[in-house]
Amino acid sequence: MEYIAYTDAKFQFLGTRKHFFRDKQYYVSVFEDCFIMGNTCDTQSPKYKISFDLNIKLNWDLKKQENNVIIQSFVFPYKNSFKTLYANHDDLMKQLQYFNLIFVRFKELLGQSVTYEGIGDLYLPILQIGKGSSAKVYSAQNILNQNIYAIKAIEKSFLNKTEKGSGLAAYKMEVQILKILSPYSQNFLTLKEIFEGDHTFYLVTDYLEGTTLSEEIEKAKNLPDHRLPMQTIRVLMYKLLTSLVLLHENNIIHRDLKPDNLMFAKKNDYSSLVLVDFGLATLETLDKFLFPKCGTPGYVAPEVLNLNYENKYTTKVDIFSSGCILYKLLTGKSIFAGKTFDDVLRANKKCYIDLDLPFDHVYITDLSLNLLGQLLNKNSKQRISARQALCHPFFDQINEHSTQALSTFITNVKFSQNGNLNLQCEEWTSRYDIEEYQVNSEMKEDEQNTITIPQTKRCSLMSEVQSLTRSPMKFYQKEPLSAIRFFKFIDLASPKGDSNEIISNDLQS
């Protein structure tokens, strides 16, 4: 074994392994890629070394003590058997007031690197937030720290149905990307923990208190200008482009940027905008993308729609989508209109963009049109980058108050009087049921390209499509948040498996 630099340890604590004749204490050191256990705090010959991997499954043993619930031990796999480590009794008593800080901190450090079992032991359900064909989203309370989280439950059977294991690969890609983005909680939905049951994967993330940008755009139709105020639009676009800088500098392409996938972490705080739903995201560095033709009609870059399998696109596809969002904010209309999804897709594919808009000197100005033109350039090589866009003079008019507001983010949870979480959250269900469809045959033969349409969402407030007529192309919409219903866990005491999986009580409409 190579030299162990204990100065690189992220966390260390003392635990106990119980044996028939005599208990034995171990020093536990947590590193970036593993944790080790040895007889001394600096041993170069540790007894156990557990490398982090999603295939490594840990289970937590809880104990109720007075008014608190604590973690008294955890079980880890080792050489085809399972070992249990208990907290040092003296240390445990000292840390009760901090929610059993030792094991909780240990659990937090491992949360994105390994898989846990027994989600029903640690989370009490509150509401079903959303539902797709492959996944459901719930809000639930962590019994250790009493905080509220969102839980995305993804059915394994659905992932396994996809061709050549692409569904499972997409799930792993989503987890990998969420792990990369975890340091940027002010910009992206943050992954906390990963659980696995017999039939389901669970991704535990931060909850979001606010609405989606789509909902805010809809509400703004009641304002005098039927749009959000211009200063608000600048703040929103500045925050969005700041997030895209972080995303693209980590070589990540979102591939489904739209108002539905932009949410506010805090109610009535436009500076708390975060980017959600990484079910279609990919790493730009891959030789071959999963589901190369994907996205939402009306926001897809032309190089995606007209892709041939000899070429690849880049992070610039997100820039085009951000231009579509800016157009919607400035005009109150979708850049690619249509009465049906096919109409929108066809218009998006042809990508005819008319920026000859009448000046109103508030929303439509030389500066706003210039920025739009650079974001929506059909030539991706000439399209502006997110970092370049932030330097555009369009943002020079963000006042000092707005700039300061960008650094304000939510830190607390609020409950209604009946104890239910007063929460509105975007459904960010996974999108692994992906098929390709051809646009109607009247399109020119040289335009016959297909776009992969995720067949999982029931997207609420897709206001750009007013008529949901029958169409040869399947495209599901999200169920509105008003359809939220209560649900329950079965057998909350069960420590493992899916006997404590989430069961919804909603009625089929």
Walk me through the structure.
- By secondary structure, the chain is of the alpha+beta class.
- Among the domains are: 1-111, PH-domain like, CATH 2.30.29; 213-454, Transferase(Phosphotransferase) domain 1 (Transferase(Phosphotransferase), domain 1), CATH 1.10.510.10.
- 24% of the residues lie in helices and 23% in strands.
- It is built from 13 helices and 21 strands.
- The protein has an eight-stranded mixed sheet with strand order 4-3-2-1-7-6-5-8. A five-stranded antiparallel sheet has the order 9-10-11-13-12.
- A hairpin with a 6-residue loop joins strand 1 (11-17) and strand 2.
- Helix 7 packs antiparallel against helix 9 and helix 9 (316-331) runs antiparallel to helix 11 (366-375).
- One of its GO terms (biological process) is mitotic DNA damage checkpoint signaling.
- This is Protein kinase domain-containing protein.
- Keywords: ATP-binding, Nucleotide-binding.
Q: What would you say about this model in short?
A:
Keywords: ATP-binding, Nucleotide-binding. The protein has 509 residues and is α+β, with helices and mostly antiparallel strands.
Percent in helix: 10-25%
Shape: elongated
CATH architecture of the domain at 213-454: Orthogonal Bundle
- Rg, Å, rounded: 25 Å
* Low-pLDDT runs: 95-99, 403-509
CATH topology of the domain at 213-454: Transferase(Phosphotransferase), domain 1
Determine the number of helices (DSSP H or I, runs of at least 4 residues).
Answer: 13
Neighbour order of strands in the largest sheet:
4-3-2-1-7-6-5-8
Strand content: 15-25%
CATH class bucket of the domain at 213-454: Mainly Alpha
End-to-end CA span: 60 Å
The CATH homologous superfamily of the domain at 213-454 is termed: Transferase(Phosphotransferase) domain 1
Biggest sheet statistics: 8 strands, mixed
Overall mean pLDDT stands at 76
The assigned structural class equals: alpha+beta
Number of strands: 21
GO molecular function: ATP binding; protein serine/threonine kinase activity
InterPro entries: Kinase-like_dom_sf (IPR011009), Prot_kinase_dom (IPR000719), Protein_kinase_ATP_BS (IPR017441), Ser/Thr_kinase_AS (IPR008271)
Domain Protein kinase: 123-395
Binding site for ATP: 152
